[in-house]
């Protein structure tokens, strides 16, 4: 059982998970194709974060939303620690993110992930996301996959 809660971007568990995610992605992609968002560069009004803890209170995964113009938002920083994968935690995090987006009247969610992260792509497809073209601030990259979903 997992508990998902909203946290500030400077939450120590979130910072730890994001640093683990950055290390994971730096092994997969060259710097120019690694689109890691530095949390210190966004305002609290633009950014909302969730973290999942297991029944013992250990951080298991995280995710975030970066709000943009035109009622859209970008899913950022979704990460599940390896020992928690395969337990449907990704779906719980994406659902929590989508709930926050709906509460903030975002109607279009977009994301960028990498071609070597097939489990992530599978997760997003299961959650109803479809492939799309690159969106700002990105440009087409052979190592990137872009996806989107319209919310009701």
Structure characterization notes:
The protein has a seven-stranded mixed sheet, with helices on both faces. With 152 residues, the protein is of the alpha+beta class. It has one domain: Gcn5-related N-acetyltransferase (GNAT) (Aminopeptidase, 3-Layer(aba) Sandwich), CATH 3.40.630.30. It has three helices and seven strands; from the N terminus they run βαβββαβαββ. A hairpin with a 5-residue loop joins strand 2 and strand 3. The chain starts with a strand and ends with a strand.
Rg of Cα set: 14 Å
**Arrangement of strands in the largest sheet:** 1-2-3-4-5-7-6
CATH architecture: 3-Layer(aba) Sandwich
Percent range for β-strand residues: 25-35%
State the helical fraction. Answer: 25-40%
Query: CA-to-CA gap between the ends?
Result: 28 Å
Number of helices, counting only DSSP H or I runs of 4 residues or more: 3
In one word, what is the shape?
globular
DSSP strand tally: 7
Q: How is the main sheet built?
A: 7 strands, mixed
CATH class label: Alpha Beta
Structural class: alpha+beta
- Domain module count: 1
* CATH-defined topology: Aminopeptidase
Order of helices and strands: EHEEEHEHEE
pLDDT below 50 for ≥5 consecutive residues: which ranges? Answer: none
According to CATH, the homologous superfamily is Gcn5-related N-acetyltransferase (GNAT)
Instruction: Give the averaged pLDDT, no decimals.
Output: 94
Give a summary of the structure in a few sentences.
With 152 residues, the chain is α+β, with helices and mostly antiparallel strands. 27% of the residues lie in helices and 31% in strands. The protein has helices at residues 12-28, 89-103, 118-126; strands spanning 3-7, 47-53, 59-68, 72-80, 108-114, 130-131, 144-150.
